[in-house]
Predict the structure.
Amino acid sequence: MSTPASQVVRAALSPRDTPESSDRRAELAEIDASTSGTVLLFFVAGMVWLLIGTVFALLASYKLHAPDFLNQYAWLTFGRIRTAHLNAVIYGFSAEVAVGVVLWLMCRLCRVPLMAQSVINAAAVFWNVGLTLGIGGILAGDTTGVEYLEMPKYATPILFLAFALIAVWTIVIFRFRREKHLYVSQWYILAAVLWFPWLYSTAQLLLVLEPARGTVQTAVNWWFGHNVLGLWFTPVGLAAIYYFLPKVIGRPIHSYYLSVLGFWTLALFYNWNGFHHLVGGPFPAWMITVSIVASVMMIIPVVSTAINHHFTMVGQFGKLKYSPTLRFIVFGAVSYTISSLQGVLSSVRWFSEVAHFTHHTVAHAHWGMYAFFTMTMFGSMYYILPRITQREWPSERLISLHFWCTAVGIILYVAPLSYGGWLQGKAMMDATTPFLEVVKITLPWLKFRTLTGLLLAVGHLAFFANLIWILARRFGPYRQPEPMILASVTPTVPIGK
Amino acid sequence: MNYGPLLFLGILLTLAGSWFGLVLTPNRQLGDLQPNVNTNTAAVYPQPLPGEASQGREIYRSMGCNYCHTQQVRPDGFGSDIQRGWGKRRSVARDYIYQKPVMLGSSRTGPDLTNIGERQPSYDWHLTHLYNPQTTSKGSIMPPYAFLFEKRKIGYEGASTNALKLSAEFAVEPGYEVVPKPEAMQLVEYLRSLKTSVDLPEAPLPKAE
């Protein structure tokens, strides 16, 4: 334990540290340092994709109420820009940041440094090459036409290879763990890295390489589509919440048994949810019913996780004022509960009949992927980046701006659009309302959505600026042993005024 | 739960459950569906798309039309699809057996297109609508696909027979005309081919009054 990083940490240890805790800190610093280059690679690439995805998002949103805007070329048409947005934020931003968080958490929790970083770095390069090809392909018109799997088949094998490397490496880290105790976050991460390659390869095979017959494709499509959220992003998000929530407030998780219950019921029920996307479609009733039942059963993992998180936080909410990590993580955790319960409601037939084909569904997707997952990832990055760069965040003001723009932005995005979507659905149910009238009803909500998108974009830029700044500060002051904004005892510099 | 192998096993078994239930079983049930042969007329339905329409389907896919238009009619009493005239009967799995990829769609920012070929058989309507949706549907938020058309000078022979008949409001300057590129014609052939009002044992057409 005598790399430069750990020496720095030892030299800067707080007077409150005992020899034992200083050893522990030095070990963590060593592990953090080993992940540094790789995790940074994933975070920075992910953030670049977020900015690209945001530009596509704004364009697509604006086009939906100004259809004549930018239409000279085929690649600018709504159907392609919208799809490029989705793939850039799902497979670019969300997945890459998720991998960064997964690797960092796994190394820390297993107490092993990241070994042979070049393997994972190569995976990062493959992933980004695959994505660039894939999103370029979508804009060029080579989309597969399968929702959530639009990237053409000359890109997807590269992505699969990259992900397989990441999954294998995560399992290798786990295999060589020095910590005997397995923490909840490790269960979720292991599950996520084992589930995703299975989902992705099955979907690629039956949808793109050797398409199944007729509507079996749609069935596989939504089995995959729902599970990529439920079995990849959700476990990673929950792993992060389970780690950072207790870490930041300095208290253990409320109940071990609730964690176990939450994990296994999620594993059992979530993967059967996909067919609630098929309500009313050309499928045998059993397929849809089975998924609705499983969707309703999701109340068990969601509520048990929510209770667990809430009782961990109880009495500690004052700390939200000081810790950016905690703010984002708690926002994400609460959104997980709300969006999941809303998802249960959406799966039921009478609700789906109205809301299914409307902007309500778009709002719900952003609730899950943004308000829960993205916010959780932002929170995680606020914690991880200072530890792998050994630099403190340069600007509190930018952190504040980032939090308020994204938190307010996503609430104002989701709530009104859900309502507007419901109105749209109600109008569509009434056959005497001409279709163009239905379109007219959605317009104010679509316009407002573009405005909230701008707010989110400002938040993203603020975070990106802070990220570039922290990276540019390589010769600046080292991180303090008492984190600048992390108020485990007393806040040294509170964020916000 | 500190025992790694048990964790692995649980993780793999849970997903194996839905892989078996939601991937394998639907494939067993629907994966061998054959076209229906009408016992009276010997008419076979569905049929693979003819060449030009099938090229048009590729344009439909590549432009992402399926993100705003569904191709599935909900059953009577569930939504207002049948009352809106989007279909005479609900869609069933057999309607899709030849489609690669199946584009059921998940959003109705625009109307359902399962039977658009029955509702709008006119070439002129489709072409002007694709060129600029406002020509036929004022207030539509569908983007124009003018890049599938060519604006050119009218030659010595006079206007082309396939030039768009645009009303004064949308007309191009005198001496010029707008003609569809092959892609536009293919897309229209595809849209005109979308018809499912065929009697099937599992989804009979309503009896004529």
